[in-house]
């Protein structure tokens, strides 16, 4: 007996299917724009620490997967905006912690600090989980892209 609600399989013609690089580039640009609109200095004056408040609508996604995929995109977006010179150990000295909030707001609040100076901005997008990014990367590899 077959289930009448079959899930749709991925195909190269599925409009929602984006490659890993396309998803990452689009979200990275959005992070850079939000950081610049929030008035973060370019570059921050010294090695920075970062803190994240991950905002999810519901508790369906694993917090560790949300953090893994989102942190990479946010750091690369901050480098693209020239808020951070690079995202290596000399420029990002620590991650101060992750908090999770569930409710109507979806996105991530990013806090960037240098010693006693602190800047904060809200990135109002649902960031993909690590698994979603890896599946997109595998699709791109299968297609030769």
SSE order and pairing:
Layout (H helix, E strand, L loop, with lengths): L19 H18 L10 E9 L6 H18 L11 E11 L4 E8 L2 E7 L6 H14 L2
Helix pairs in contact: 1-2, 1-3, 2-3
Explained architecture:
The chain has helices at residues 20-37, 63-80, 130-143, and strands at 48-56, 92-102, 107-114, 117-123. With 145 residues, the protein is an alpha+beta fold. It has one domain: 60s Ribosomal Protein L30, Chain: A (2-Layer Sandwich). Strands 2-1-3-4 form a 4-stranded mixed sheet, with helices on one face. α1 packs across α2 (63-80), α1 crosses α3 and α2 packs across α3 (130-143). The termini are far apart. The model is unreliable at 8-14 (pLDDT under 50).
């Amino acid at each position: 007996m077959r289930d009448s609600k079959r899930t749709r399989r991925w195909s190269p013609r599925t409009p929602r299917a984006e490659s890993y690089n396309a998803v990452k580039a689009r979200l990275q640009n959005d992070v850079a724009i939000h950081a610049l609109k929030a008035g973060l200095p370019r570059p921050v004056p010294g090695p920075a620490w970062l803190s994240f408040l991950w905002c999810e609508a519901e508790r369906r996604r694993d917090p560790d997967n949300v953090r893994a995929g989102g942190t990479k995109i946010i750091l690369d977006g901050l480098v693209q905006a020239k808020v951070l010179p690079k995202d290596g150990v000399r420029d990002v000295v620590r991650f101060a912690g992750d908090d999770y909030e569930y409710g109507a707001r979806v996105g991530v609040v990013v806090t960037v600090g240098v010693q006693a100076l602190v800047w904060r901005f809200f990135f109002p997008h649902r960031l993909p989980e690590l698994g979603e990014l890896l599946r997109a990367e595998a699709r791109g590899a299968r297609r030769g892209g």
